[in-house]
Amino acid sequence: MKLISWNIDSLNAALTAESARAVLSRDVIDALVKEDADIIAIQETKLSAKGPSKKHLEILADYFPNHKIVWRSSIEPARKGYAGTMFLYRDSLAEPEVTYPEIEAPSTMDSEGRIITLEFADFYVTQVYTPNAGDGLKRLAEREEWDKKYAEYLAELDSKKAVLATGDYNVAHKEIDLANPASNRRSAGFTDEERSGFTNLLAKGFTDTFRYVHGDVEGVYTWWGQRVKTSKINNTGWRIDYWLVSNRLADKVTKSEMIDSGARQDHTPIVLEIEM
Q: What is the pTM of this model?
């Protein structure tokens, strides 16, 4: 089974805009089409509460004609056109049960469309768009609570059947997961609190598949900031997107790596291949 995850940073912009960045985004989508994945998880769709428009669905059907689509958007009292997630899954797969979990997260986080879970006969596939701690770490305390609640949710799934979990976790777990750890000690995504939260998640029975396959390789990232034009050229990136699996599935993983997104900065897609 092949699965892909990608923080797209606005589905509408990627599908319908004519900017240079949109063209680069569609180049990435073309690369995903060639990958021919069974399941594609997309984060930060930024769609309205009504979800994808008819035009969006038509374009997606052209790109991925053999896939069904489920989505979740941010709804009131959360911000409009914010966060959001989507799954595309091959229509030949046994029809999964789709759930849109709420984890008793603080503030409006449960209303921001951050988690979708597909339940198959023998396993779950779940994706998350983890809240960012924000400028000045203004949302760090809420983020810490989120991390605890989310870890409990994954552990609950894992107690029932094996789990494949993915998404933008908004944390670089170890120093080797970002280019400049020393200067980012109190930056959102590399605080001790967020790193501890991710350690706690793994300790509940999950494997970071990229590290499982590649060990302590350095200089491999999934995100390059857009504010610095040379971030990707200089590879000053962060690894904040992950494919995690229940520990009992780790030896079934055959591939876990990044898909080349060319000159496009921001997130790059990540791919998992696993014998299921």
A: 0.97
Using an 8 Å Cβ cutoff, are 267 and 168 in contact?
yes
Burial of 202 (0-12, 13-18, 19+ CB in 10 A): middle
Residue 129 a catalytic site member: yes
Residue by residue, DSSP assigns 236-247 as: --B--EEEEEEG
Radius of gyration for the alpha carbons in the chain, expressed in angstroms and rounded: 17
Q: What does the pLDDT look like over 65-122, one tens digit per residue? A: 999 999 999 999 999 999 999 999 999 999 999 999 999 999 999 999 999 999 999 9
Distance CA 217, CA 177 (A): 9
Pairwise CA distance, residues 223 & 261, whole Å: 10
Write the Ramachandran bin of 274: left for phi over 0, alpha for psi from -120 to 50, otherwise beta: beta
Residue range 151-199, pLDDT digits in tens = 999 999 999 999 999 999 999 999 999 999 999 999 999 999 999 999 9
β-partners of residue 90 are 67
Measured between alpha carbons, how far is 4 from 88 in angstroms, rounded to an integer?
10
- 212 belongs to the catalytic site: no
Nearest to 242 by CA among 204, 275, 197, 209: 209
Span 244-261, average pLDDT: 98
Catalytic pick among 9, 38, 110, 129: 129
Catalytic position from the list 9, 38, 168, 208? 168
Q: End-to-end alpha-carbon separation of the chain, Å? A: 6
